[in-house]
């Protein structure tokens, strides 16, 4: 292992991981310049790899693990969203108990921009258009009078026997109808099954949604998941051809190793894209291949994935997480300055 590798790589050996101690703190190497913000700004960058309305994969390059983990934790527990907090049950004759039904309803992702709402200061106060969204779920299961006499399938025998999230209807409070369009408020997905009913079963509910954060309850978390991993690095130290090349390809995740013609009618292994490897180290099972591969992870290159539940796009969630983290840093600096003035 050379000096540069010891600074920037975790080496994945057959029986362990080498160079796991952090050395990227100021003064870790006497030959290096001290840390500076200008140097950090020059080296740090974000590269978006994949993006759609619910999921984003991007690279954080030139950053410390603590910062990457701070983004992840803020996304999970401190970026706000709207969720059903209270359920007024006027009638529920379904098989699901009232408290279980209320819990299921609370976990349904809502399409509502939390940036347009305020936190509800008093939980027992009357709902207002600034802090609450109100919904109604009113449905009754009946026999299908036009069903064929030999019908056996519930879809043919009953009407409204499956209660889906699409049956939740928004009831505007105050001037909300003038501010939001009907397609801007409601469940994100219409096909979430809430309950199954039979003739005689009925639900009559009022649902109140408020703004909250995942730290208080998981239903307020705006992401299905937020995760990161270090960028894999795979290097072939010698040429691998023929049957050995085919075995080498199977040792890694699909798309990592490709086979190309060496010009003599034999297949030769080549690293195509190490990014998608799981770093399982299966190659070390083969004595004739273990010396042909060098596996590592780049210390300051993080592959970050955000999967939104649908209320806000993932890029907006990341920006909101940045705002929360910035606010925390500002508060911390204010506390330090205040304490220093008291001394």
From TrEMBL:
The keyword Nucleus applies. It comes from the Eukaryota. It is found in: Nucleus. Belongs to the archaeal Rpo3/eukaryotic RPB3 RNA polymerase subunit family. CDD domains: RNAP_I_II_AC40. This is DNA-directed RNA polymerases I and III subunit RPAC1. One of its GO terms (biological process) is DNA-templated transcription. HAMAP family: RNApol_arch_Rpo3 (MF_00320). The lineage of its organism: Eukaryota, Metazoa, Ecdysozoa, Arthropoda, Hexapoda. Its main location: nucleus. GO terms for molecular function: DNA binding; DNA-directed RNA polymerase activity; protein dimerization activity. It comes from Frankliniella fusca. Pfam families: RNA_pol_A_bac, RNA_pol_L. Keywords: DNA-directed RNA polymerase, Nucleus, Transcription. Residues 55-335 form the DNA-directed RNA polymerase RpoA/D/Rpb3-type domain. One of its GO terms (cellular component) is RNA polymerase I complex. InterPro entries: DNA-dir_RNA_pol_30-40kDasu_CS, DNA-dir_RNA_pol_insert, DNA-dir_RNA_pol_RpoA/D/Rpb3, RBP11-like, RNAP_Rpo3/Rpb3/RPAC1, RNAPI/III_AC40, RNApol_insert_sf, Rpo3/RPB3_RNA_Pol_subunit.
